[in-house]
Specification:
The protein is α/β, with parallel strands linked by helices and about 325 residues long. About 60% of the residues lie in helices and about 10% in strands.
């Protein structure tokens, strides 16, 4: 995945802050131990001085350098073990003096053997996706806001409750659950709302979903491809942990958009990266609107969720107009 410059800078700053915080805390612990156990300070000084002796042995090419180095090493190991024993007896933790790094693998440097550590790569990825999402008009929601009564009939209400339960479990099982979902139905039936619920539920668990409208995503990719703006939205969408595309079918009909769309969907299917797409089009309209290779991916690789009923936004608006100044508000 390609990362933005700002994402890289922010990630490096976070890792640096983590390391500084760990070292500062270790210094405080060391000061505490030295006050309580002065002999530990002396033992640490002995270890430090022994390294100086070792350097001199090597520098002057002492014929017994190997033997002396081994003796120094053994003595240091015994001294360090004695330090751990004393510290453990006082604090209950023999590793009390060791810096408590957020990432023990790279010791909060962000680098392992000349390569970026997974900890900083994860930060860079999340910050890149966050930048992508800042321009999205899709609002985040909570599943607790869902109201089944806006759907007509007991059967449809129960069906929607089951789908909401399915999406809740989907979020709980993420990222092990890698299935892709296609939400279909008319305008104002809750597709965008539930997409926002998924994005928020995953964000609460520490996962970043890239979310936005098909129109916005495709226009951004086009602008970047033709040099009108900087970035690599296409790469970010292909590699996001979860991609949520809203309102598929509302974008302009351009052959280049179909190319981008197929590249995104096909790449994510092949990489087994989950995608959630919402559209006002039904299966027949999707087949008519898009090339067969896109329609077949949507029909064959996505779980369909079909929304039915009356526009919820209009229902909510009518309710508001029906109780001016809150006169009919049951909560008042």
């Amino acid at each position: 995945m390609k990362y933005t410059h700002n994402a890289i800078v922010r990630a490096e700053e976070i890792v640096s802050e983590r390391r500084n915080a760990a070292l500062e805390e270790a210094e405080k612990r060391e000061k505490y131990i030295f006050e309580k156990l002065p002999e530990v300070r002396q033992m640490r000084e002995q270890v430090a001085n022994s390294y100086q002796s070792l350097i001199r042995v090597i520098a002057f090419r002492d014929p017994d350098a190997a033997k002396k180095a081994e003796l120094i090493k053994e003595k240091n190991l015994r001294t360090q073990e004695n330090i751990r024993l004393l510290v453990g007896q006082l604090t209950g933790d023999p590793n009390f003096l060791e810096p408590q790094y957020t990432c023990p693998k790279c010791r909060d440097t962000g680098i392992i053997e000349g390569e970026r550590c997974s900890c900083i790569l994860e930060l860079m990825k999340n910050f890149t996706v966050q930048e992508l999402n800042t321009r999205s008009a899709i609002a985040l929601h909570d599943f607790s806001e869902f109201r089944a009564e806006f759907y007509e009939g007991t059967d449809m209400q129960n069906k929607m409750r089951r789908w909401v339960d399915f999406l809740c479990n989907y979020c709980l099982n993420f990222p092990e659950d890698k299935r892709s979902i296609l939400m279909m139905g008319g305008t104002g039936l809750g597709k965008t709302f539930l997409s926002g619920c998924v994005a928020k539920a995953l964000a609460d668990r520490g996962y970043e979903a890239a979310f936005g409208s098909a129109f916005d995503f495709l226009r951004r990719i086009e602008d970047e491809q033709f040099g009108r703006s900087e970035g690599d939205t296409l790469d970010s969408l292909i590699n996001a942990e979860l991609l949520i595309i809203d309102d598929l079918g509302a974008e302009q009909q351009k052959s280049v958009y179909e190319t981008y769309l197929y590249n995104i969907i096909n790449s994510r299917v092949n990489l087994r990266r989950p995608t959630i797409i919402s559209t006002n089009l039904d299966t027949k309209q999707l087949e008519q609107r898009y090339h067969e290779r896109i329609a077949s991916r949507l029909m064959g690789c996505f779980i369909p969720i079909v929304f039915m009923g009356r526009d919820i936004r209009q229902q909510i608006a009518r309710q508001r107009f029906a109780r001016p100044n809150g006169a009919n508000n049951p909560d008042q």
